[in-house]
Amino acid sequence: MSDYWFVLRTNPQCERKAAGELRRRGIRVYIPKQAREVRNRRSGQVTVKTRPLLVGYVFIRFTGPQEWFHVRQCQGVKGVLYLDGEPGRISAAAVAEFMRRQRRREFGRPDAESDEKRMRRLQTMFAPGRRVRVADGPFSSFLATIEQIKKDGSIKALVEIFGRPAVVTFEDPDRCLTSQSA
Asked: Strand 33-39 and strand 89-91: pairing?
């Protein structure tokens, strides 16, 4: 077995199709993936979806003789990535590092958080009466006092605007508020 992988270009959004075809022909395939949380607009449920980290590219490793003809005949494969006139190679150690980092979930935030777990986290980070600083939006860098954590996960806070308190609701407190007291 060789100690390096090759880089293949795929047609747009055909990484999985190409990988399936290549595997059927006895070629080892690796697609680095990125996980992301997606919240359903109607039900509010959070699911984890994956997508390729390197869109349009997959790594292949031959388990037998190098048969480029069979690789090019696979559906979804656009061709081999050539570097200096030769097929682009990546060391097995570099691809193994990609695999380790994907297992450690460094690409994206793949842990879907249940509503109960999110509410517990918000209650510890943004307890009522706590002073925080607004990090994003029109009230950026203003001080705020947490009033209430609503059931949908939004936070109602009193923001001091020009010395007077105003009630503001933050729909995404993780992005808008910093938990360090100011």
From this structure: unpaired
